[in-house]
Amino acid sequence: MSDHSGSEQLAMSGYARTAVLYFAASLVPTGILLLLRGRLGVLNTASWLVVYGVVIAMGEHAGWGIRLSLGDPFMEPHARVHFFMAGVYAAVGGVLLCVLARTLLLEGRREGWFAVLFATLVGGTIEVVMNGPTGLLFQHGLSSSQSLAAGTVLWGYLVAWLAALVIAYPPIFRRPVSTRPRARSRSETDRVAHP
Questions:
Q1: pLDDT-derived band of residue 190, with 50, 70 and 90 as boundaries?
Q2: Which of 28, 144, 153, 192 is spaced 20 to 30 A from 56 at the CA atom?
Q3: Domain count, the chain
């Protein structure tokens, strides 16, 4: 029995090592962007961190939803369309978050920062509760009996989004209100469009 226990521990340590390497690899683009923020600009870097996180999350969640709907011949047709559309709407939501990041966050608008915060808090919390180390549905990349070690790559999106929020906070919230960009009123927009 002790031999079996020792071989399980050895196998788990190999799994854990591999899982950590995959997770570390998912952090490389985040690290590179953070190192280049002086050259790219803080808000530009933050917006690209959000885009990178979306690529990870969309690739996993939207990709699986669509793949399962198209690849499972035994899935009931009604369930198939729901899996497919969940994948489609996950992709649409990801694109919209990228648009918010590349416009509002890049412009230094608080609305953009709060949109990323909302996605991180709501999506990230549900992800951890349902898919985390003690996930209610699955332990993504964190359980050798349920997942591949490569599954830890998924967690890179949360790190990227948190990094974006942290670096974008000072330029967005620590400047006087009078110097922040403001949205044009409808009448100002009409005057610019129709002089």
A1: very low
A2: 144
A3: 1
